[in-house]
TrEMBL record:
Cross-referenced SUPFAM superfamilies: PLP-binding barrel
Residue span, Alanine racemase N-terminal domain: 34-228
Pfam family, one: Ala_racemase_N
Positions bearing N6-(pyridoxal phosphate)lysine: 42
MF GO annotations: pyridoxal phosphate binding
PANTHER family registered for this protein in UniProt: PROLINE SYNTHETASE CO-TRANSCRIBED BACTERIAL HOMOLOG PROTEIN, PYRIDOXAL PHOSPHATE HOMEOSTASIS PROTEIN
Name of the protein: Pyridoxal phosphate homeostasis protein
Lineage: Bacteria, Bacillati, Actinomycetota, Actinomycetes, Streptosporangiales
Domain of life per record: Bacteria
Cofactor(s) needed: pyridoxal 5'-phosphate
Described purpose of this protein according to its UniProt entry: Pyridoxal 5'-phosphate (PLP)-binding protein, which is involved in PLP homeostasis.
Family: Belongs to the pyridoxal phosphate-binding protein YggS/PROSC family.
Length: 234
């Protein structure tokens, strides 16, 4: 495929996503300015990230350090904000702290401590979102709702880190709107304890509208922008 064809493809994806966001905003009485679109570029090449940037996208998300580190390096100079959205092992924290501006998947005190230490070492400030396991099962990432306050407090008290708010993925087998309504309540409690921690990262290609209706501030969208990913083996 030529670069021009790919550009047209991505432009069409972006237009479709923007149309969905506009409709969701209209339906829930919100404005586009309240929302940040994070383009999740995992499995897609740095050339796609450049095309996205050329189309005005400023926020890019990745979920695996190995891939993200290379892409962030290749795209340095584009002035992008890099979001790390995947499960994060402490042995990857030093690398992630080198390029990530926002980490959406902070879910345990040990990870907070490691991120804070590496952010300070790198001389950077990293915005952290507390990931919530809305189904109460932390195995696929996220803190249990009952543990969110403690993780948020840890982030707020850690040098090098800034508490941005909360993040979640809608659990399988539950209507996303119901799940995101619970996230909104949890976000409210976090904000009461930490004024300014007003980010709600929720909503992916399949459930953007439900997320917007439930107060999301950040949408993490991959497939609807860039196309269906090829399955890959970890
Ligand atoms: C891949 C991914 C997304 C984007 O998902 P799509 O369904 O492709 O839009 C969002 N959030 C996280 C955490 C992801 O891993």
């Amino acid at each position: 495929m030529t670069e021009e064809t790919r550009r047209d493809e991505i432009a069409a994806g972006l237009a479709g996503v923007e149309a969905q966001i506009a409709e969701a905003c209209r339906a829930s009485g919100r404005t586009r300015e309240e929302l940040t679109l994070v383009a999740v570029s995992k499995t897609y090449p740095a050339s796609d990230v450049r095309l996205l940037a050329g189309l005005g996208v400023r926020d890019v998300g990745e979920n695996r350090d190995q891939e993200a580190a290379v892409k962030a390096r290749e795209c340095a100079g584009l002035g992008l904000t890099w979001h790390f959205v995947g499960q994060l092992q402490t042995n990857k924290v030093r690398s992630v702290a080198g390029y990530a501006d926002v980490v959406h998947s902070v879910d345990r005190p040990r990870l907070v401590a490691a991120l804070g230490q590496e952010a300070v070492r790198a001389g950077r400030e990293i915005t952290c979102l507390v990931q919530v396991a809305l189904d109460g099962d932390p195995r696929r990432g996220g803190a249990r709702p009952a543990d969110v306050a403690a993780v948020a407090d840890a982030v707020a008290g850690a040098p090098g880190l800034r508490l941005g708010g909360v993040m979640a993925v809608a659990p399988l087998g539950e209507e996303p709107g119901r799940a995101f309504a619970r996230l909104r309540e949890i976000a409210q409690a976090v904000r009461e304890a930490h004024p300014g921690a007003d980010v709600i990262s929720a909503g992916m290609s399949g459930d953007m509208s439900e997320a917007v209706a439930n107060g999301a501030t950040h949408l993490r969208v991959g497939t609807a922008l860039l196309g269906r990913r090829k399955p890959f083996v970890r």
